[in-house]
Design goal:
Layout: E1 3-10, E2 13-20, E3 23-26, H1 27-31, H2 36-42, E4 60-61, E5 70-73, H3 78-87, E6 105-108, E7 114-115, E8 120-121, E9 130-131, E10 134-140, H4 149-152, E11 156-163, E12 166-167, H5 186-190, E13 196-204, H6 205-208, E14 215-220, E15 223-229, H7 237-245, E16 255-257, E17 277-282, E18 286-292
Parallel strand pairs: 5-16, 7-13, 8-18
Antiparallel strand pairs: 1-2, 1-4, 2-3, 5-6, 9-12, 10-11, 10-16, 11-13, 14-15, 14-17, 17-18
Length: 293
């Protein structure tokens, strides 16, 4: 029996849902939990008796409409690092892991950034260079503090797909020296409204198996842009959780976007245009599609 945790559009906003063998049931009627985040925070098993009537014509929303923290891994695929080095006229060198570094993350805004399947993301007026980044997203299901990598995946409830949309032409503040800690503008680049499409649902970790052996792809229109595998991550999902939990307690409903592979638009100077459709796919999860306007 395939089970997916999701949200769908209700008359008063997103409602939690449970999809069992392609049929959607209302999460509150089934389990008493008013939302997906509430179900995760309860840390109680989800009852699969599906006593209620199925939801008819359910229109999917972001799986967690109100996530906790969203942590995003930077520079975390070997193929992506190689393409970026070549784009800057450099020879690809050793990875940060090979140099003895630890995983690195930035924070993306939650409710303002998150949109769901089929959404239309309005490109920010201040940017002409919005890029795509397909990412495997780990959904935290149990609090994690100072967790070793060997036990880190025990704290993951499941996985979904995310697009870390990035406004490349506002990532730097040109009047600040490059060696200044204030040279980079992470809010303008990564946190505009709709900058984090998520979906279509959360697949439980037990169904996913090894998160480091998953095909991952992205299309803009009919053009395949990204085609890789999560085995090319520099720091694994477990290593990222180990690092993050050494700095902050990860809470149920927190999301970890684990990095993007090669094929982004920046090296080829190709960015999203109004009217285009973006389609993302990760093995064992499915597809997420959204538009830009």
């Amino acid at each position: 029996m395939a089970c997916r945790l999701l949200s769908y559009a209700g008359p008063n906003g997103p409602r939690g849902g449970l999809m069992i063998d392609d049929t959607v049931y209302d999460l509150e009627r089934e389990t008493g939990f008013v939302s997906v985040r509430a179900a995760l925070e309860s840390q109680k098993p989800i009852d699969l008796k599906h006593r209620s009537e199925p939801v008819r014509n359910a229109r999917l929303a972001a799986p967690i409409a109100d996530p906790g923290n969203i942590f995003c891994a930077g520079a975390n695929y070997t193929d992506h690092m190689a393409e970026m080095a070549r784009a800057h006229g450099k020879t690809p060198g050793p990875t940060m892991k090979e140099l003895g570094e630890k995983p690195w993350h930035f924070v993306k805004t939650g409710k303002s950034s998150v949109v769901g399947p089929g959404a239309t993301v309005k490109l920010p007026a201040y940017s002409k260079s919005v890029d795509w980044e397909v990412e495997l997203v780990a959904v935290i299901g149990k609090p994690a503090k100072d967790v070793p990598a060997s036990k880190a995946l025990d704290h993951v409830f499941g996985y979904t797909i995310g697009n870390d949309l990035s406004a490349r032409d506002v990532m730097r503040r040109p009047n600040n020296p490059p060696d200044s800690p204030f040279h980079f503008d992470w809010v303008s680049q990564k946190c505009f409204d709709g900058a984090c499409p998520l979906g279509p649902w959360i697949v439980p970790a037990a169904e996913m198996g090894d998160p480091q052996k998953l095909g991952i792809k992205l299309w803009v229109g009919s053009e395949l842009m990204q085609d890789s595998n999560t085995e090319k991550m520099i720091f694994t999902v477990a290593e990222q959780i180990e690092m993050l939990s050494s700095r902050v307690t990860l809470q149920p409903g927190d999301l970890i976007m684990t990095g993007t592979p090669a094929g982004v638009g920046m090296p080829r100077k190709r960015f999203l245009r109004p009217g285009e459709t973006v389609r993302l796919w990760i093995e064992k999860i499915g597809e997420l599609e959204h538009r830009v306007a």
